[in-house]
Write a structure and sequence with these properties.
Purple Acid Phosphatase, chain A, domain 2; single chain; alpha/beta; 9 helices; 2 domains; about 375 residues; 6-stranded mixed β-sheet
Length: about 375
């Protein structure tokens, strides 16, 4: 007996993306909704019918009526795909009204998993789920995966939660044992909660979110195509790209004598990809005042190319000399202001925040003078 399916999780439909400008917030929310059709198409291209969602399909226990309705209708529109939806910590079973509404309004091709009882997915293929009972269950819900199934059946565990404390100290113990697949005799353990794709042991995987929602994870957003060749045989897992947006946190280091524009071009995504990119750029090193100002102007000019763009120049020191200040003025009030700011930049007795502010002000002063003189 063999079985193939698509494993995904953490769609977080309805996520608000507060803190970002309204235009990109709206696009990010729509991309999360459209991932339903992208998952269906990914499954279709792989020749599989079942998509297993390992929790946090919704971002909150009380998604808006529109978010819920649009999600159910999007799944219904993919009528050839069977969706199996597990409650996660964001949309746990404690949200009784949410799961009541899903049960009442769900399309025929959606199966909401509200109990840990094993059930048969296909002939001789059993799913052993561990739905989240509340946001912080405080116990290992995956113990239910040790339930008996018919001899010779393939056993698939589907759960949501941490095997390490992802939000705390690195390596701290979590709730789900890393060897749950071995302990419960599973041929595959599909997990949700961690938004980056991660393999845990030979047959246990976090699928990660199919549409990235932050800069934390380096792996590209994807779903996992899983092939189980037979009981006791190693699962074959292949990531399939599903994301629309690219989130990148880049570091650019420059020194005097180097061409910042050339170095910048080498790290930025191609122009055609920038509209669907969110980029956080940190610049370090040292540059002469003129080059520092030119780089700042170049970054400001590039920003509208991206879906969202942030450049941090606080780590880029100004290598200022008397001839650089001459470009501002050789005397008078502007020269006095420039010398005062430079003294603050180079004063180790001042707080770093004060020195950074002085450096930014010096750069702005230089750029202002150059603009007036142009």
């Amino acid at each position: 007996m063999t079985y193939r399916f698509l494993h995904s999780s953490d769609l977080h439909l309805g996520k608000a993306f507060g803190g970002y400008p309204e235009a990109i917030r709206n696009r990010l929310r729509e991309a999360r909704h459209l991932v339903i059709s992208r998952l269906a198409e990914t499954a279709r291209r792989a020749g599989v019918k079942d998509v297993l969602l390992a929790g946090d399909t919704f971002d909150a226990e009380t998604p808006s009526p529109e978010t819920l309705r649009h999600a159910l209708r999007a799944m219904a529109a993919e009528a050839d795909i069977r969706w199996l939806m597990l409650p996660g910590n964001h949309d746990s079973l404690a949200a009784s009204e949410l799961w009541r509404r899903i049960a009442a309004e769900r399309p025929d091709n959606l199966q909401a998993i509200a109990t840990p009882a094993p059930f048969e997915l296909a002939p001789a293929v059993w799913l052993l789920p561990a739905p989240c009972t509340q946001r912080r269950p405080g116990r290992d819900l995956t113990e239910a995966m040790s339930a008996a199934t018919p001899p010779g059946a393939l056993r698939i565990g589907l759960g949501h939660g941490a095997i390490t404390d992802f939000s705390g100290e690195e390596g701290a113990a979590g709730i789900i044992p890393p060897d749950r697949a071995r302990l419960s005799g599973l041929d595959y353990l599909g997990l949700g909660d961690w938004h980056g794709q991660m393999q845990i042991g030979a047959s246990s995987w976090y699928s990660g979110t199919p549409e990235a929602d932050g800069f934390k994870h380096e792996t590209a957003p994807a779903a996992l195509l899983v092939h189980l060749p037979g009981q006791g045989q190693l699962a074959q897992v292949e990531p399939r790209a599903t994301g629309l947006f690219t989130w990148q946190a880049l570091q650019l280091d420059v020194l005097p004598g180097e061409d910042p524009a050339t170095l910048l071009a080498e790290v930025l995504p191609a122009p055609a990809r920038r509209r669907d990119s969110l980029l956080r750029l940190t610049v370090g090193g040292r540059l002469p005042l003129a080059d520092h100002a030119a780089l700042g102007a170049q970054l400001a000019a590039l920003a509208p190319d991206f879906g969202w763009f942030e450049a941090g120049l606080s780590g880029l020191a100004i290598d200022a000399r008397a001839q650089d200040l001459d470009l501002i003025d050789r005397g008078g009030a502007l020269r006095a202001a420039a010398e005062l700011l430079l003294a603050e930049v180079e004063n180790p007795a001042l707080a770093q925040e004060t020195r950074d502010l002085a450096q930014t002000a010096l750069g702005h002063l230089f750029a202002f003078v150059q603009e007036v003189q142009a």
